[in-house]
Every structure is written in C-alpha cells, then in structure tokens.
Design goal:
Number of helices: 17
Distance between the termini: 17 Å
Radius of gyration: 29 Å
Shape: elongated
Largest sheet: 6 strands, mixed
Structural class: alpha/beta
Length: about 425
C-alpha cells in the first residue's frame, strides 16, 4: 500500500476511514466531531478541529504524519505553534510524542483503518504512465459532474490571470485602459511576437495615439515607425509616405523605436506576419482608442465581439503581406480564430479582473458569458481530451481543460481535483 501525507490529509479531510469504535493508541475512545480546516501554509495540518477524547471535548489543531516519529524528524518539538495540537493522526505509531511542555499528545493510528480500494485507486493513479492519471477511467464520470468541476478550475484560471494584471496596473498607476492596451498589444503578437508587440505599446502610449484619433495615417505611421519597420528606404509609395510622416513625428515627440530585429517571421503563415498584425492593430486603434472603457460599459457580448470584426485596413494590405513585396491577394482581416484568441486571453481576463477588483459580479459573469459564447480552442491538449472522451463545446470548457492539464494532471494533484476525488472516494 502506497501511503504519503497528501493521501492521509485527503483521507482525514473526507473521513475515508473506518470511523466506528475509534480509539487512541492509549485506549481512549475518540469521536471526531469536526476534522478541522485544511491548512496549506506553515503550522499544523488542520486547524479548528473538534474532537471528543474519552469524556472530554477538545478544540484545536490536528497534525498528520506517516509515522509518529516524523514529529521529531520535522522538529515540531521545538515549535510552540504545535502546542495546540489535540490529536496526532498517523498511519503507523512507532513513538510517543510530547509537546514542548512535556505533555503527551493523543495519537490515532489509521493505517489499518483505510479501505484497501482507496489506497489501490490512489496507487493506480500515481503509478500510471498515461497522458493524464485518470485517462482510462474518466469516461466513467458523468459529463455533468466533469463540467461542474471544470467551472471551479476555470474560475481558478481567471483568478490567476487576474493576479498577473495587478502588477501591470501598479506600473500604469491604476489605469485599466493603459493596462488593457499593453496586454492587447501583446496578444496581437501571439506567442511568436508577443514581446516586441508589448515593447511597441510601452513605447507608444495611448495618450499620444489619442491626439491623432481623427488622423488614421498618422496612427499608422506611429505604429509602423515605432515598430522599426520604417528604419530603411522603401520602394512603394505607401511605406515611403509612412516613413516621411514618421520621421517628422519621431522628432516632434522625441520617440525611440523598437529594434526591428526583434520581430520574427520564421514558421509563420503570411497572414500572421508581424507586418500584417501591425496593420490590424493600427486599424483597431483607429476604430476605437481607449477600448477597455467601451468594453466595460457594454452589456451586449455580441457588441464586444463585433469590436474586433471587419477591421478596415489601408488598401495597400489587400495585395501585400510585407512592405515592397506584392502578392495576388492578402487575407488582411482578423480571422475568427485570431479574434477568439484575443477575446479569450485578453478581453475575458480583463473583464473578470475588473469584476474582482471593483466587486462587480456583473463583470465577472460577463467574462464567463463571453467564454461560453466562443468556440473552443483547437490545440493538442483539447484534441487529446476529445480523444479520451472529454469534449469541449465552448472556450470556457477548453480554457478549464488547459488549466486542469497543466495545474493538476501534469503534477498529479489528483487529491485536489474533483474528478480525482471522485475516483478515490468510490
């Protein structure tokens, strides 16, 4: 039987041991009224437990170990934080344990009280070499139950991403619009060009772009110029005019462009070239500066989605993917997959984060509604989940599955996963 402290915590928390006729190692009767609250930080494993020992009702903490002697191995005998431990729960009792004042701690040995199927199920999950620990069993779980578990995982994912926004908000002095602008720019670069896009946004504040909101050509010149794409002589008249305009704006606003060598083209489809993404980004800025202010006041999810549809680019991009390199036809509009990527990874996250920081339940719900209304992502993780019988009907589920795989399955945290708990507690 494989036993570790995580499994013992799980068994204690959910009372998955034979509870009738419990006795301490010294022969006193035990009645576990309340196992306590699981503590994931420093100190005893469970706090605020309530246990009747003999004829006395005790309230305090519970510490759990594989062996009683682990108490000394972990140096608890020198830590007064453990003096309020009322029960020491162990798999195997091999030594009497004393508090710092010399009083003995009551011990419950549960190694022989654990049902064999729980230990066996846990061993099967931990020892397997499958893609996820429960790969061969997950089809047995009802879809409704899985989706219920995934809702919690999705909220966890959005909360984690919201925490990342906090640091950016501090940097931009609490401006949600500026934080959104920088994150949106990074998203436009996707994985390959996320960094230069973010550097571009940081070098070109919204406040400056807002000064040219009625002059689209100047916005295009600023964006392409600051990205470093206008630092050499160009043949076509459109980029030549952009370069001339940017040289004037560069001096006027004392700008410092991003180094062009940071932008990557390798292994990208032409429609994903950074030059095309920059043109699309410029078109979005031209259409709507300070976009997040509009998003948080918009109640209709369809309207939010439409903000990114049918961007009007300069006609030059109808026949070009790069400056001075003509092609027959260029797919210049943002595709559905690209729009969904932005809505999933930037818009929904900022709506949720805004809801958390302002206490607005409406904005948190709006973020979830947005994800539920979008098609699921298409990537290796989602395809594999589909193969083993877990299907994604929308991006809320696909986002949750990505979080489940990376934060639980890959780390074999089955004892913290609702689906894993279901297998273990059968």
């Amino acid at each position: 039987m494989i036993l570790n402290e995580d499994l013992l915590h799980f068994i204690w928390k959910f009372r998955l041991y034979h509870v009738s006729g419990l006795k301490s190692t010294s022969g006193e009767s035990l009645d576990i009224i309340r196992p306590g609250q699981h503590n994931h930080h420093a100190g005893p494993d469970f706090s605020n437990a309530k246990i009747r020992i003999g004829g006395t009702l005790w309230a305090g903490n519970v510490e759990i170990h594989i062996r009683s002697s682990d108490w000394y191995r972990h140096q608890h005998q020198f830590d007064k934080a453990y003096d309020n431990v009322i029960l020491h729960v162990v798999a195997y009792h091999d030594q009497e344990i004393l508090r710092t004042d010399g009083t003995e701690i009551t011990v419950l040995e549960i190694g022989n009280l654990i049902p064999e199927d729980i230990a066996q199920n846990y061993e099967d999950l931990m020892a397997g070499l499958n893609w996820i620990p429960c790969e061969r069993k997950i089809k047995q779980v009802e879809e409704f139950f899985i989706n219920t578990c995934l809702i919690r995982v999705l909220i966890e994912r959005l909360e984690e991403k919201s925490d990342m926004i906090d640091a950016l908000l501090i940097e931009v002095k609490g401006s949600w619009d500026d934080a959104f602008y920088i994150s949106l720019a990074r998203n436009f670069g996707f994985k390959t060009n996320a960094l230069p896009f973010e550097m571009l946004a940081r070098s070109l504040p919204q406040s400056l772009l807002a000064r040219y909101k009625d002059r689209p050509f100047q916005i295009e010149a600023l964006i392409f110029g600051q990205s470093g794409f206008l630092d050499t002589k160009l043949k076509d008249s459109y980029p030549q005019l952009l370069r001339k305009e940017y040289q004037f704006l560069l001096k006027k606003h004392d700008l410092k462009p991003v180094d062009k060598f940071l932008w990557k083209y390798m292994r990208l489809r032409p429609r994903n070239f950074p030059s095309v993404r920059l043109a699309q980004f410029a078109a979005l800025i031209i259409r709507s500066n300070h976009l997040f202010s509009k998003i948080i006041h918009e109640k209709d999810i369809a309207v939010i989605t439409a903000m990114f549809n049918k961007l009007k680019l300069n006609e030059y991009w109808n026949t070009h993917y790069r400056f001075d390199q003509e092609c027959k036809h260029s797919a210049v509009t943002l595709g559905e997959e690209a729009i969904n990527n932005i809505l999933i990874n930037t818009v929904s996250v900022f709506l949720f984060a805004f809801g958390i920081r302002t206490g607005s339940v409406i904005h948190r719900e709006r973020a979830l509604m947005l994800l539920e209304g979008l098609n699921p992502e298409r990537n290796a993780i989602i395809r594999k989940f589909n193969e083993i019988g877990v299907n994604s009907s929308n991006s809320a589920i696909s986002q949750a599955l990505i979080q489940l795989k990376k934060s639980y399955c890959d780390q074999k945290k089955c004892l913290s996963c609702g689906i894993g708990i279901k297998f273990l507690s059968k």
